[in-house]
Design goal:
This protein has three helices and 14 strands. With 271 residues, it is mostly beta strands. A hairpin with a 2-residue loop joins β13 and β14.
């Protein structure tokens, strides 16, 4: 049975941008008591060796632990392998504890502007699309969205905030010297993914079998989902992905539906 999110989730009188900004402001009020603590080599000693190497590669040791992160993206999206690519710009604000993710997209299709908001707060997630800021054409929610956004949250943790891999919410299984399985539990939702690294310690792929594909918010298909990373670059002493793709591994043939380039990232943003 599908349920609504609550006050903000059902506030159709708000624009999606207004809802995004209000939720960000609300999340920034809760500064954790350990804000400012530094991540040390001892903190990561219990993790698999390849994960430790990745955290060091990312430049997280000796830096403040991350409790929130904010990004601006530019990229392209499409609905299917034969659909045209649409250019988009996006803002993201995520929180570590309690985990939350807000992702706002601005784009246009055939000259018609549309706005998209992914909202995952508490145990519930939604994915909504509005044309011209007025007409809701996708309103996805329910257990499939909750599980899918939990996978996306794990993906963000791995790619964008690797210091937060030191978490009781994540358990590890070593597959081989360059591959591990991460199992993540959040608000009763359990998902897993295979993380593959190269010899330098860089994460080169993330593959999960726990994410659902939907284009209309009504029908859902469970498909393998991956985000191969093309390159890494240093920003303020941290290494971040330069470009990544989002790929559906459909039995009819895999296809990339998203291309992402990070324009700006900020950690531990103050309210």
């Amino acid at each position: 049975m599908r349920t609504t999110l609550g006050t903000l989730g059902g506030a159709d009188s708000l624009s999606l941008l207004d809802e995004y900004e209000l939720a960000v402001k609300d999340g920034l009020r809760a500064v954790p008591p350990d804000a400012g603590e530094v991540l040390t080599a001892e903190d990561i000693a219990s993790l698999p060796e390849v994960v430790q190497r990745y955290i060091r590669f990312a430049g997280a040791i000796g830096r403040a632990r991350i409790w929130n992160y904010r990004l601006r993206f530019r990229g392209q999206l499409r609905n299917g392998p034969d659909s045209p690519w649409m250019t988009f710009e996006a803002n993201q604000q995520s929180f570590v504890e309690p985990a939350a993710r807000l992702f706002f997209i601005k784009a246009s299709m055939f000259g018609v502007p549309f706005r998209t908001l992914h909202r995952y707060i508490g145990a519930s997630a939604t994915f909504r699309v509005r044309l011209a800021g007025l007409v809701t054409v996708v309103n996805a929610y329910g257990p499939e969205m909750d599980q899918s956004e939990t996978v996306t949250l794990l993906n963000d943790i791995c790619l964008l905030a690797p210091s937060t891999l030191v978490s009781a919410s994540i358990t590890w299984e070593e597959i081989d010297a360059l591959c591990v399985r991460a199992t993540f539990v959040n608000q009763g939702h359990t998902v897993s993914a295979l993380l593959t690294f190269d010899e330098s310690g860089a994460l080169i792929d993330f593959l999960s079998h726990d994410r659902f594909r939907t284009t209309d918010g009504k029908t859902y298909t469970l498909l393998p989902w991956s985000t191969p990373i093309r390159d890494w670059a240093e920003s303020d002493g941290r290494r971040l992905p330069v470009e990544a793709q989002a790929i559906w591994h459909d039995p009819a043939g895999e296809f990339a539906y998203g291309r992402f380039r990070i324009l700006e990232v900020k950690y531990n943003v103050a309210g």
